[in-house]
Amino acid sequence: MGEWGRFSVWAPGRDQVRVQACGADHAMARGENGWWHADVPGAGPDTDYAFLLDDDPTPLPDPRSQRQPHGVHGPSRRYDHAAFPWSDAAWTGRALPGSVLYELHIGTFTPEGTFEAAAGRLDHLVDLGIDLVEVMPVNAFDGTHGWGYDGVLWGAVHEPYGGPDGFKRFVDACHTRGLGVVLDVVYNHLGPSGAYLPRFGPYFDGETPWGPSLNLDGPGSDEVRRYVLDTTADLLRHYHLDGLRLDAVHALRDHRAVPLLAELSAEVDALAAGLRRPLALIAESDLNDPRTVTSRDADGHGMTAQWSDDLHHALHTALTGEKHGYYADFAVPASLARTLRHVFFHAGTYSSFRGRTHGAPVATGTGRLPGHRFLAYLQTHDQVGNRARGDRMAASVPPGPLACGAAIVLCSPYTPMLFMGEEWAASTPWCFFASFPDPVLAAAVRDGRRREFAAHGWAEEDVPDPLDPRTRERSVLRWDERAAEPHRSVLEVYRALIAVRRAHPELADPRLDRFRVDASEDGRLLVLHRGRLRLACNLGPFPAEAALDAPARDVLLAVREGTVVRGTASDGTPSDGGEAPGTTVRLPGASFTIVAVG
After folding, report:
1. Which pTM was predicted?
2. Who contacts 85 (Cβ-Cβ below 8 Å, separation ≥6)?
3. For the sheet containing 6-10, what is the strand order?
4. pLDDT tens digits, residue range 524-545?
5. Mean pLDDT, to the nearest integer, of 156-172?
6. Residue 247 falls in the annotated catalytic set
7. pLDDT tens for residues 547-558?
C-alpha cells in the first residue's frame, strides 16, 4: 500500500470514523489510544481527503493537515516534504546570541503579500545587517488577509501567501543570503473560523481572551501535548527553520510537574543535536518570570530567550511621554535606566495596571542569566498594531529621539529586534485587519474592536474598520519612501548602528554583571557602559557628551547637530579605517555618541 495509502486520525470519543479520499468513503478501524486507521488504494502524495465523524455528513479537514489548498473549511491534501529541491545544504544555522532580529509580516511586507515578493526584498535586510528574520504566523487561517494569529491548522501554510512550497523557497532564499528564519507559532488558542479540532477530541479545555485554551493537563492531554511537540519538530525539520517564537505562553494553562515549555525545550535541543545546527525557542511571556529563560538543569523552562515588554514600555514612555494604560508605571524619571539595568521593571513590585504585585527579579549581578536571553525592541506588531490607529512611533516622535532609542536597543546587552519599516521610520501605519468571509463573524470582529477601543477613550470613527480591504492596504510598507528624507537619514543611522555593533564585540556582550547604566536625575541623559565603549544618549536639551566620565579616544558613531559622524578621533580627524565626518542626516531633537575611552 505504501506510506501515502495509510490515513490516521485521533478521534477518541467517536464511534465511527471514515476517510473520504479517491472518490469514495472508506471505513477506518479503531486502533490504540483513540487513533483510527485506514488504507486507501490509489492514494498518493497529492491526494485530497477529509474525515467523516459518526453520522455527521460534513467532511472535515485533518486536524494535522500539511496543506489546505481549498481553504480551512475544505479538504486537506497530502504533501511530500521530501520532494522540495532545497539548495541550503551548506547552511549551518544562525545562533541567537549576538544576532539582530527583524520581525516581518508576509501579507504587508510587500504590496503582493506573498513569500515570493518578500524574498525579493531580502537584500535590503542583508544590507541593513540583519541576522535572523522573525516571520509572523503563516499557518492556515480563514480569509485572504490577516495577522495570522487566528490560525486553525498549525501544520498547514497559508495558501494565499504561496503555500508550503512558497514558504520553503522563502526560507531557502534567506539561507542563501546568510539570514536565519524564526517562525511565530500560536499554540495557546485557535481562531474563530475553521477550528474543527474540538470535534475530533479533547484538544481544548477552557478559554483564553482570544479563543479556546489548549488542553495540556486534563484527560486526553497526552496526545494533545504530543501534537504540539510533533508540530514543533516538523516545522523546524521540514521547513529548515532556525527557531520558533511561541506566542503568549502565559496563556498556556499547564499544571503538570514538567511544563510543556520544558518538554519543548528538551525536544528541540535533541533535534538541534541531530541536525547539527542551533535551534532557538523564543517565548512571548507576560509573567516577568526568569524561570522562562532559565536552563532546565537549573529548574527552569529552558527557553532560548523571551520578549521583554518592560524594556519596550520604558523606552516608549521615555520617547513619547505617553502615560495611559500600562505605560503609567513607567512614567517616572528612573524607569528607563532601571529597566535597562534589571531587565524587568516589575520584578516583585506593584503594577497599577494589574492592580497587584507582578514579576520576579532577574539576578543581573550574578552573571547566571545573560542578556541575550531577553529581546529588546522599540516597536513590535503588538505594540503598533494594537493601537487604535495602528500608528508607529515615527508618527509622533521626531527622527532624533527615534535614533536615540535605536542606539539604546542596539548597544544594550540584550538581543535587538526591529519591526519591519522601523529602520526607515516608515510613514505607513500597521493596523489590525482581517478578511473573514462569514458576514456575521466579520460584523462581530468589527464591533468588538470598536467597543474595545471606545473603553479606552477612542471615538469609533478613529478606529479603522479591520474588515475593510483598505485597512490592510494602508498597512503595506511603501518601499519607495526610503529614498526621501527623513527616511533615508534614519535608515543610514540604523545601518551604521548595526555595523558598529558588528565591528565592536563589546556592544553585543550579553554579560549583565558587566553592564552599567548611568542616568541624570531626570532620566533624560543616559550612559551605557560597554567594556571600553560608552553610549552617551541625550533625550533632553543638552549635549550627550556632557555625560561621559572619561575623555573620548575615538568617536565610533555619533548623531549630533544634524550630522552622522563615523570613525573620528577626539581631535576631529578620521581614525584608522574610518570615514570623514559630515554626512548630512537631518535628525532634529535628541543626539547620541558612541565612543571608545581610556
Report:
1. 0.95
2. none
3. 6-10, 35-39, 29-30
4. 899 999 999 999 998 876 666 6
5. 98
6. yes
7. 676 677 888 998
Quick one: angle between helices 309-320 and 399-410, nearest 10? 150
Closest by CA position to 153, among listed 73, 35, 244: 73
Q: Which of 62, 134, 242, 247 is catalytic?
A: 247
Element containing residue 24 per DSSP (H, E): strand 24-27
Rounded Cα–Cα distance for residues 596 and 552 (Å): 6
Span 284-314, pLDDT tens digits: 999 999 999 999 999 999 999 999 999 999 9
Alpha carbon distance 91, 240 (integer Å): 9
**Residue closest to 403 by CA, chosen among 425, 371, 376, 373:** 425
Question: How far, in Å, CA of 26 to CA of 20, rounded?
Answer: 6
Nearest Cα neighbor of 504 from 564, 563, 577 is 577
For the chain, how big is the Rg over CA atoms in Å?
A: 25
The C-alpha atoms of residue 379 and residue 146 are separated, in whole angstroms, by: 19
Q: What is the DSSP letter of 357?
A: E
Burial annotation 349-379 (CB, 10 A radius, 16+ → b, else e): eebeeeeeebbeebebeeeebbbbbbbbbbb
Contact 466, 433 (CB under 8 A): yes
Q: CB–CB of 413/375 below 8 Å?
A: no
Contacts of 191 (CB under 8 A, 6+ apart): 141, 142, 149, 150, 151, 152, 211
Q: Assess whether pLDDT exceeds 80 at residue 157.
A: yes
Task: Count, in order, helices (H) and strands (E) of the chain.
Answer: 14, 28
- Of the residues 284, 422, 492, 509, only one is catalytic, namely 284
User: Counting Cβ atoms within 10 Å, is residue 38 exposed (0-12), middle (13-18) or buried (19+)?
Assistant: buried
C-alpha cell of 427?
Answer: 510613514
Contacts of 357 (CB under 8 A, 6+ apart): 348, 349, 350, 351
Closest by CA position to 539, among listed 340, 288, 328: 340
Does residue 62 contact residue 6 with C-beta atoms inside 8 Å? Answer: no
Please report, for residues 154, 215, 222, 234, 274, the alpha-carbon distance to residue 226 in angstroms, rounded to integers and kept in the order given.
13, 11, 6, 12, 19
H or E element, residue 469: helix 469-474
Tell me the C-alpha distance between 432 and 429, whole Å. Answer: 10
Q: CA dist 396 to 159, 393, 494, Å?
A: 37, 6, 19
Amino acid of residue 561 = E
3 state DSSP class of 130? coil
Burial of 459 from C-beta contacts in 10 A (0-12 / 13-18 / 19+): exposed
Burial class (CB in 10 A: 0-12, 13-18, 19+), 299: exposed
Residue type, 342: H
